[in-house]
Design brief:
A five-stranded mixed β-sheet has the order 3-1-2-4-5. It has one domain: 6-pyruvoyl tetrahydropterin synthase/QueD (Tetrahydropterin Synthase, Chain A, 2-Layer Sandwich). The chain has three helices and five strands; from the N terminus they run E-H-E-H-E-H-E-E. It has 134 residues and is of the alpha+beta class.
């Protein structure tokens, strides 16, 4: 029997969507207000969905304390109150929320072994959310 568990976390961060190889006009056309030279911030809601068999003794897919510790140590501590443009993970790519989803998925995929990572979902605003499932 396979079950899914989704856990939600929150962190604020800022970014500027911009590509150096584009002109200022091209960047404004592609990214609009998200190309603000001073950046802008979001209060992100991160959902991590994992799956696996329900453990007969605990009745759970995975230990929530392990999931929370991994999320805080490997993800939240890196991105919380950060300017995403300044982080090594976005040195060579635009820190869009799509790319943030991929980055967080990869961190869980490589390091969280207590359950299978199914997908990452990030709500950027009440109108925008993004998902990545590998």
């Amino acid at each position: 029997m396979k079950a899914h568990l989704t856990r939600r976390y929150y962190f604020p961060a800022s970014h500027r969507l911009h590509r150096d190889e584009l002109s200022e006009a091209e960047n404004r056309e592609v990214y609009g207000k998200c190309n603000n030279p001073h950046g802008h911030g979001h209060n992100y809601a991160l959902e991590v969905t994992v799956s696996g068999p329900v453990d007969g003794s605990t009745g759970m897919v995975c230990n929530l304390a392990e999931l929370d510790a991994f999320a805080h140590n490997k993800v939240i501590s890196t991105f919380d109150h950060a300017n995403l443009n300044c982080l090594p993970a976005f040195r060579d790519k635009v820190p869009s929320t799509e790319n943030l989803c991929v980055e967080i998925f990869d961190r869980f995929q490589k390091g969280f072994t207590s359950a299978k990572v199914e997908k990452i979902r990030i709500e950027e605003t009440s109108k925008n959310s993004f998902e990545y499932a590998g």
